[in-house]
Specification:
The protein is of the alpha+beta class. The chain contains 11 helices and 10 strands.
């Protein structure tokens, strides 16, 4: 093999192996939710800094020692080394790879390779997706929930609609000023096989009052805090037009929708309304949300607050696996501010969302 071809093969091999080492080392740092700056430092140290600098300094020292060595008269000439410069570089390269990747494999084992696959192009800048259209499509109709909504009092500030795609049941819930109500029809499958009634009876839902069963005239299953018992027995006008408008921002395929319209003058001046929804497919879960502020200052503050929450410690009292699940999903949330409107989107696998649900509510 000619020297030119030999050097070409060596150079290409170094670049390929070095790129793999850089990606594995830096992608592992990204996967552990550290900053891109630290990932770049670790990756660059793995290749090219450590192996190339070590090789250059080592070869210079070796050349200097050979030049300074004086042959002794009558002594046999030293045997030439069987290792070439290329061989010594690869030995140093492997040593650096072991030092850098070894602890990573001890911590994550094959997760190092999975991190490399997931974040192989972490250093390539990608423009944020255009989320301005979230919540501005054709208004969603709630034909299956319409009767249920009519049981909620008109003073409802937060309303939820849920459709169980497996069992076909529908549910709505509402909250306002410490009072709450829940109305359902059909079968609702809850995690763990618990009945809806058992879950409702076991705790208050964002209310200081416990739920109790309410008898309605149309056969729906209703539960309410004491202050709302008489208000949900008969169908009425339901939530306000503004709250219905926020709920209608969700796509028709959304299984879970929540809307919020403040009723106090101070809050209503700052926030006109907000909505969020969840769409599940066989493999993925997409969560989207939209908030409309009353003025630009509030919009900027809300945008900053949302981003600060995403990079927080994710509740240090939770188990490590829960903090990791929260951090993983928080890193994928994209938040965009466009004037008074803030929109957000998260795409996750159903397994990741199941892990998050399994973590339960925040620790008390």
């Amino acid at each position: 093999m000619s020297k030119l071809r030999q050097r070409t093969v060596f150079g290409v091999s170094v670049l390929v192996a070095g790129a793999i080492l850089f990606i594995l080392a830096s992608a592992f740092v990204i996967d552990r939710h550290y900053s891109p700056i630290l990932a770049a430092i670790v990756g660059a140290f793995a290749f090219p800094v450590a192996p190339v600098l070590w090789h250059v300094l080592g070869e210079r020292g070796r050349t200097r020692k050979l030049a300074e060595a004086k042959p002794v008269k009558g002594a046999p000439a030293p045997k030439p080394s069987t290792l070439t410069g290329f061989d010594r570089f690869w030995m140093r390269f492997v040593a650096v790879a072991i030092v850098v990747l070894g602890p990573m494999f001890v911590v994550a084992r094959t997760g190092v390779f999975r991190a490399g696959i997931r974040h192989a192009l972490w250093f390539v800048p990608t423009p944020p997706p255009d989320l301005r259209g979230i919540g501005s499509d054709t208004p969603r109709d709630f034909k299956d929930h319409d009767l249920l909504f009519k049981h909620l009092p008109p003073e409802t500030e937060v309303a939820v609609a849920f459709h169980d795609p497996n069992e076909g049941g529908n549910l709505v819930a509402g909250w306002a000023a410490g009072h709450s109500a829940l109305v359902s029809v059909g079968r609702i499958l809850l995690p763990g096989g618990a009945s809806l009634e058992d879950v409702v009876r076991s705790r208050s839902w964002y209310s200081n009052d416990t739920f109790s069963i309410v008898s309605t005239l149309d056969g729906t299953d209703a539960f309410a805090s004491d202050a709302w018992r008489t208000k949900i027995q008969l169908p009425g006008d339901g939530p306000s037009t503004a709250l219905r408008r926020e709920l209608a921002r969700a796509p028709q395929a959304a299984q879970f929708v929540v809307g919020w319209v403040p009723r106090s003058p101070k809050e209503a001046k700052a926030i006109h309304g907000a909505a969020a929804w969840l769409v599940m497919t066989d493999d993925t879960v997409v969560v989207e949300g939209r908030l409309e502020a009353g003025d630009i200052t509030t919009a900027i503050q809300a945008y900053a607050r949302i981003n600060n929450q995403l990079v927080g410690d994710h509740d240090a009292e939770r188990p490590a696996r829960c903090r990791h699940a929260l951090s993983t999903l928080a890193d994928r949330v994209t938040v965009v501010q466009n004037g008074l409107v803030i929109t957000a989107r998260l795409t996750a696998t159903r397994g990741e969302m199941a892990d998050l649900v399994a973590c339960g509510m925040p620790a008390n």
